[in-house]
Amino acid sequence: MITLLDYGAGNVRSVINAIEKLGETVRVAASDRDIVNAEKLVFPGVGSFGSMMTILHEKRFVEPLLTFLDSGRPFLGICVGMQALFEGSEESPEVKGLGVLPGRVRRFTVDLSVPHIGWNGIRVQQPTHLFDGLDGDEKLYFVHSYHAVADDPATVLTLTDYGYPFVSAVQKGNILGTQFHPEKSGATGLKLLENFIREERRISIPEKCPEQTRLAKRIIACLDVRANDRGDLVVTKGDQYDVREAGNVRNLGKPVELAGRYFEEGADEVTFLNITGFRDFPLADMPMIQVLKETSKNVFVPLTIGGGIRDFTDKNGRSYTALEVADEYFRSGADKISIGSDAVLIVEEYLKSGKKSGKSAIEQISFVYGNQAVVISIDPRRVYVQSPDVTSHLTVETAIPGPAGERYCWFQCTIKGGREGRDVDAVTLARSCEELGAGEILLNCIDRDGTNQGFDIELINAVKKAVTIPVIASSGAGCEAHFAEVFRNTDAESALAAGIFHRREVPIAAVKNYLKDKVEVRL
Ligand code: 1PR
Asked: Which residues are known catalytic residues?
């Protein structure tokens, strides 16, 4: 029996699913006695350090937690749950940590995108049972902007490199903590959780740890989901966002099945986009929540879900905030949510007023769940102009001239699945969303979507150069070489594709094999 400490602010479902997958029973601690009496305690932390510690205090969980940590029984803190073990964090300087390990948590100061998102390696520093059965060269999934700085080197279990080495796991007796997410790290993560749970394990240092670890470029499979004309929820795929063929919605498979297939085939993440979410309220659209719940039982890589995340009043007059919609998605197994149409409207308001309201979906969701949990999905389309002076928008000089030979274009944001163009360009949108607290940009491109012509390199460079958060390049992948091209010619951290994976034209493994001598990938 594993006890899970849930302080009510995030996705504990993936951790429960991963432990249950290993045949264990999970009990969620509901009281201080559950914590004190736990045999083995897992503490997954999300959101900000300050809000986590404040909630722990409010629930009177701090004392029982310290009692448990003193008992010598096995403890595993994950992400912010590991950071809690330290004395405090730069993220919330006014709040004290548990202080079980000497040291503090600091923000990354690197000339690289922050948050540090994706699959990176580990360098094991001391013998441990946690990596029994692993080689040491595996990659694990990270997503964080802060990392621990341990004052006692004896507590450092692993180091990972991102600009500089940082503490990625700690160990003191039976107290373990990982900055990475074992529950999102595929088979490697499940093995690690098994090593935490089971008694019979070998204590060793794995043999193949790299001298320096490297963050992998991520390959993401995207499932555009909507109801077809018969009312079944299907994975569909458009050409330049038109998902109909001979009048019918294209049906490329069932969402849960396809997501499972992509996990098996080595996708680094899976994204679901509820493409009619702008008109159908997602909480009324329970099948989508069901899809997420079912998928997260068997898919142990990060899941993003988008579509319809906005404030909404239903036909009975009941109002829901975007945060409530996101809550439901996180509770059902999402690790990140993605906001499309509403982000454009939020930015329009932000640009008009010149100040943050604190009330937008981006601000509210990132405050509770952390910036890394908020992805902005942009659906831009090229607007050609003869010269940069004729528009107030940020233009690029393009190597792909317009229909009248125009040599400049700007990238117009759209809402409602490309149906409505707005007076905001993608570069301004991305930059504004970062200011408002978004943690990642999913950069689609209507011109390239479904064309198999390759990613829009000019668009990706324009946006990537304007932000410091990671960018996912999307739309247009037609072959393995297109992925190499996007990683060679832009600084995008990941690349997403849909059609070629759904139609089995190019398997994910083929993409990774092609890339492996060119860029770092997770094999
Ligand atoms: O606006 O917050 O409700 O979110 C709706 C979401 O649904 C947005 O993220 C928007 O991008 C997406 N969406 C809306 N309509 C469509 C459509 O296709 N008709 N799909 C749509 C967006 C783009 C990618 C696609 C890549 C790769 N699809 O998701 O997977 O272009 O495709 P490819 O590799 O086949 O070229 P809201």
From this structure: 79, 181, 183
